[in-house]
Design a protein that fits this description.
By secondary structure, the protein is an alpha/beta fold. It has 16 helices and 12 strands. It has 2 domains: about 150 residues, 3-Layer(aba) Sandwich (Rossmann fold), CATH 3.40.50; about 250 residues, NAD(P)-binding Rossmann-like Domain (Rossmann fold), CATH 3.40.50. About 45% of the residues lie in helices and about 15% in strands. It has a 7-stranded mixed beta sheet with strand order 9-8-7-6-10-11-12, with helices on both faces. Helix 3 crosses helix 16. It is globular. The two termini are about 45 Å apart.
């Protein structure tokens, strides 16, 4: 029997949560349905000829505008996947109180097969198609990076949009994830991975929850298996190691997987892979037979940070981790999750754990609309105020401190300090909401269902307040 596809798996999870809610069926149907999907085909000059490119943009919910979601470049992009990801974005935004509807885009290409100039032509043409159909704009639909895309592609989108909307004062807010030099925000590149760290750290802080799965509280000393060294996986692994004190014991990438129970220095591994093009020649590790073997090592936490549906009915019983942190979108299928929950595995759901990207994208969008860098107005004022406070304490106590200690105590917040603080608060508050729902409702057996219920209630309240569903 074939595994359900990603869209079916997401729909099943939503339906499971919906069955426990008191929301009217008509309103639930409206919340579930994708409001708009745009499939396009366009020719682009590639090499000495032309190629017809297939691409999509799905806007799942218009209950709040603009809609928001990344654009991925992948040969596996298809309509169901884009619709599923767009729906997850709706629930993700609601969960972390970001006032957007969900959207997602995708271009069916393997970016490795194209030159930079060809990728630029494809990206610009895709943007032009979105503009023609009114599928992009600061108050309409705001794309962001996803798999296979990054700040470079977002800069191309911005340039195309501004050239076709000359004089629009808020045009820089048409896309997020831009380079800092092109109206981006400090901390966006690390945001999703850092959000994974904050989310896991908060989940690990509850002693009774950890006792139930056989772990001690806190991240310090926890063993982690990491699948995927893209933007999300590399930052999540590095921050968990360097700030959380965790130990990375296994890493998987498309070329293979490696293992060392004594720990793998993730920063050294990233430098090695950049230099050599592979993780398989990294010294002091055991090479595993298959690239998915890292999923099955004995560890405390498994972080799948690559593709969807990597843990399913056929392999869920092989998982030895006590906790799974879904850094990727949909890495555990609906049927796979049933098996893991019966085994007592704690699953931190994707649309919570990887919400750092959209949270900081929201901050970038606000920055673009305000036309003001975060921290610019208050940093010097705060520094002077803290300096006076330190002087007062030293005078009252007769104490002394070094110049470095004074600088540390009196430093006003830079943009990245404010971004990280806002992200940390967002992830902690969202997890508290999820856990409260989980503990309060006896029929809510897992964190994913609890998270969907929290989001469903928030979205339903939005619709009701609009007077559409009295």
């Amino acid at each position: 029997m074939s595994q359900p596809n990603f869209y079916e798996s997401v729909s099943a999870s939503i339906s499971k949560a919906a069955s426990l809610s008191d929301i009217p069926k008509g309103l639930l149907s409206q919340i579930k349905v994708t409001n708009a999907i745009y499939k396009m085909s366009f020719p682009v000059k590639v090499g000495k000829g032309y190629e017809v490119i297939t691409a999509y943009r799905a806007q799942h919910s218009h209950h709040r505008l603009p809609t928001k979601g990344g654009i991925r470049f992948s040969p596996h992009v298809h309509q169901d996947e884009v619709m599923a990801l767009a729906s997850l974005m709706t629930f993700k935004c609601a969960l972390v109180d970001v006032p957007f509807g969900g959207a997602k885009g995708g271009i069916r290409i393997n970016p490795k097969n194209y030159t930079e100039k060809e990728l630029e032509r494809i990206t610009r043409r895709y943007t032009a198609e979105l503009i023609r159909k009114n599928f992009i704009g600061p108050g309409i639909d705001v794309p962001a990076p996803d798999m296979g895309t990054g700040p470079r592609e977002m800069a191309w989108i911005l340039d195309t949009y501004t050239s076709m909307n000359h004089g629009e004062i808020d045009a820089t807010a048409c896309v997020t994830g831009k380079p800092v030099t092109q109206y981006g925000i400090n901390g966006r590149n690390e945001a999703t991975g850092r959000g994974v760290y904050y989310g896991l750290r908060e989940a690990l802080s509850y002693e009774d929850d950890m006792k139930a799965i056989g772990l001690t509280p806190g991240m310090e000393g926890k063993t982690i298996a990491l699948q995927g060294l893209g933007n999300v996986g590399s930052f999540a692994g590095s921050i968990c190691q360097n700030e959380g004190g965790a130990k990375i014991v296994a890493v998987a990438e498309y070329e293979g997987s490696i293992y060392n129970p004594d720990g793998i220095d993730i920063d050294k591994l990233l430098k090695h892979r950049k230099a050599k093009g592979t993780i398989m020649t990294f010294p002091g590790v055991k090479k595993l037979k298959k690239n998915d073997d890292a999923l099955y090592v004995d560890c405390d936490i498994l972080i799948p940070a690559a593709l969807e549906s990597v843990i399913h009915k056929g392999n869920a019983n092989k998982i030895k981790a006590k906790m799974i942190g879904e850094a990727a979108n949909g890495p555990v299928t609906f049927e796979g999750e049933k098996i893991l929950l019966k085994k007592g595995v704690m699953i931190i759901p994707d649309f919570f754990l990887n919400a750092g990207g959209v949270t900081v994208s929201y901050f970038e969008w606000l920055k673009n609309l305000s036309h003001l860098r975060f921290g610019r107005m208050e940093k010097r004022f705060d520094t002077r105020a803290y300096d006076k406070l330190v002087d007062f304490v030293l005078k009252a106590t007769g104490g002394t401190i070094s110049k470095r200690e004074r600088e540390f105590l009196t430093k006003g917040a830079d943009e990245i300090d404010l971004v990280r603080s806002g992200l940390e608060e967002t992830m902690i508050s969202a997890y508290k909401d999820i856990r409260s729902m989980w503990k309060r409702r006896s029929k809510v057996e897992d964190l994913r269902t609890a998270a969907f219920l929290v989001s469903l209630n928030k979205i339903a309240n939005d619709y009701i307040s609009m007077g559409i569903f009295p």
